[in-house]
Specification:
Blueprint (H helix, E strand, L loop, with lengths): L4 E3 L1 H12 L4 H8 L12 E3 H15 L4 H8 L7 H5 L6 H11 L4 E2 L9 E6 L2 E6 L2 H5 L1 H22 L4 H4 L6 E3 L8 H8 L3 E2 L5 E5 L13 H20 L3 H9 L10 H7 L4 H10 L4 H19 L4 H7 L5 H12 L3 H7 L1
Parallel strand pairs: 6-7
Antiparallel strand pairs: 1-2, 1-3, 4-5, 5-8, 6-8
Helix pairs in contact: 1-3, 2-3, 4-8, 12-15, 16-17
Length: 348
Amino acid sequence: MPNPTISAGYPKALLDFAVSRGADRQVLIERSQIRLDDLKDQDNRIPLANYLALLKASIELCNEPALSLLFGEAVRLQDISLVGLIGVAFDNVESVRRQVNRYAPLTLDADDGGTADAIELVRENGDVWMKFTSEIYKANPLLTESGFARNVCGTRALQASLSASMPSLANLQFPKAIRFTHTEPSYRAEYDRIFAVPLFFGSHMNALLIDEAILNMKLPRTNPYLSEIMSARAEELLKSLESSKTTRGRVENLLIPILHTGEASMDMIAGKLALSRQTLFRKLKAEGVTFEQVLDQLRHKLALDYLNGKKVSVNETAYLVGFSEPAAFSRAFKRWTGSSPRMARLKD
């Protein structure tokens, strides 16, 4: 069963945006069931269902039907996702499109096994449309309007900043028109204000009509060293995302938020995955591990991170990785590493 996720930068920014417009932060957290700890790193993955719950709660609490659209207008992609930074690191628009297609799952991952590009060019009666292919956008107009507002406003801002050095860019309208698969909303006036181009609702695709000259236009060359660093980080995140889709990865993702309770069990995780215990056992076995090994190795990995990276105390680390007694944690840690947790903490 697909498990679509979105990068944590989105809900973090949305939470702040909704609060700035009068919503109660604690109520939003409770309604969305998003853990604040999961928002500390904007590259973390958040279930899309929780993000949509946050979005709907924000609309209700702010009493603003157009909130998703306004959020897209106000918050730039480069402020919430590495993909936004990569998008301004190449010297022509077509290169940007190819890179965004590669790294699109780092923003929103449908987890549906699809292989189509996130953005396709569709030529129709002499026009060039930039089509956004994901079925998730068709099913969720709030995501579409927010994403399109962010894309259009961000591109126009970049266009304005380059207009002095590239007069030809300033003369190109972006976009020339927009198609939406959803029906016209009650707040159509906000669409007109933000996009200021012909809009077509109830269309067969979500797409931006563009001037083909934009695709081949040369952009100012950016720092190649910086581009390499960002691309390397994106590749690392993409690899991590793919590994999280294995049965082991899904089990680990479910274990992490409940590990501190000490109540993590195979039956509990199987239930969360809508699998029988035996089916989960078989799936893990096919990947060469057991549930007990996944749990033990995850505790080991997190313990090292808490002790060395985050400088958490030994007792608190024991609690966080699911040990009720520090002595039991110390025995496990010595089995993992050959030394005591206190020694490991002092070494770093």
